[in-house]
Give the backbone structure.
Amino acid sequence: MRKTALNMVHELAKRDERVVYIGSDPGPGTLDEMREEFPDRFFIEGIAEANVIGMAAGLAMEGYVPYVNTIATFLTRRCYEQLAVDLCLHKLPVRLIGNGGGLVYAPLGPTHQAIEDIAIMRALPHMTVIAPADADEMRRMVPQTLDVEGPVYIRLAKGHDDIVSQEEHGNTLGKAIVHKEPGEALIVTTGIMLQRALKAVDQLAAEGIECGLLHCHTVKPLDAETLTHMARRAKVVVTAEEHLTTGGLGGAVLETLSETMPGSMPPIIRKGIPDKFTHHYGSQDLLLEHYGLQGPGLAQTVKDALSK
Amino acid sequence: MPKDTPPSGPAPLAVPLDERSKHLRRMALGSMLSAGRGHLGPAMSLIEILRVLYDDILTYKSDQPDWPERDRCILSKGHGCLALYAILADKGFFPKSELDRFCAFDGLLGGHPEVLAPGVEASTGALGHGLSIGVGMALANRIKKRDGKVVVVMGDGEINEGSVWEAAMAAAKHGLKNLTAIIDYNKIQSYGPVNGVQPLEPLADKWRAFGFAVEEVNGHDVEALHSVLKRLPFAGDRPSAVICHTVKGKGIPPAENNPGWHHKNKLTDEELAPIREALGEG
């Protein structure tokens, strides 16, 4: 997925001379072909995120569309004031490609786990937040970021994630994708929770429980219309995210439905990472399992919610 | 490359202010009084720096603030905005009447500058942002093969911020000769003397070590400022830095070198009388 996103930046640079790439200190060979083809629009600027964001702002003020790329925790935590002031306050078209959203860097520990990135990016006025589920969805969505007004945070997953998105579902920024109409329950996902939720939905169907699935590759702006339409038909809604249960997709769903369904909102269970840093390592999948975010865990959450 | 001028000591800083400098100070003071608040001290040390930049150094069209070929000037020490607003109004970027609505609910001019005000290149106020933005603008000029200057005016306290030095390294790496960092070195930050809060010396050597061609100048001596800034860029392969030795609160007798006047609320008639006299008001 990372390679796909970066290659798309190169493709966009071919089509649009406003496109600039800025990396901090990525792996060797990153976007070599773009560097060779567009040396004046390719920058590697070192481990200095505050400066990188300010510099991207300066370029954007002059008409460029910088795609900034580094590890998600550093891109969101380290330079938050630059994101808020330089990018959001000025409503500048800078794109932030965060490597390793969620628990991708599980073995590297909590300094590298982006578990609150969606919450803090979503909190910023003018910021758009997307978390595609797989490389195909990423390929369809990155070009749409080109002309978004204001900054966009693009949360990358691990790479080699199972391809589950389907082109025929459409892939429009800001528009949630209905993978399955709701039955008794509805699971709402973002990012790579889609793969896990699809397994949960299949398992539940095998057990005779019809559960819908709505995928929100765009967390901000959240597709309130589709979400509300789906939630109206469900007895219970489970949100699933590779993120803290505070402030992320679950928070966004609660906020939205509290406004669109006042008094008639179904029970909403936010499934994610509890409000603490993990000190386990292992792998992304092991941590997801630990937090009940794999298919069986999500299916169990739905069953528990329905039995209440 | 011209030889660096020696640092100005306290004596040369005591230059008398001419009528134009007093006029701009009266405008800034008027804004502050209309709001009943403002960062007076940090603005007063800036007046001559901005005056010389906008009178003689920068190219711009005040009736077309977004003219693409203009030079860019970012007031990174956004709290010095009373001085910026005075010079921008003086140059006709917006009506002088806006100065009397400083910090008003629906005013154009806030306690820190925003790009909504014509002539303001970047919204600042959080310190340590301007130089990085300037680096991006200078790189954009390079890609577009434009010659325009990018000038970033920073405070001495501001350069406590690590992001300034990240930006300095980037500017030097890219050899941004059309980028100039100006330091308003008034030696006093909010709490007190810079030397007590976070010493900066040897400041000129720091900028040189970070890859800048450096000049020092008395930041209130209009002729000296003019002479130094006219020589920009100081080198053909590096960014420039101008360390302006200034007096916080310059021209406002009770505010000079007085940390208590970093930000002021109301002024009494007793306080105002000697100030008006010093600025040539009746």
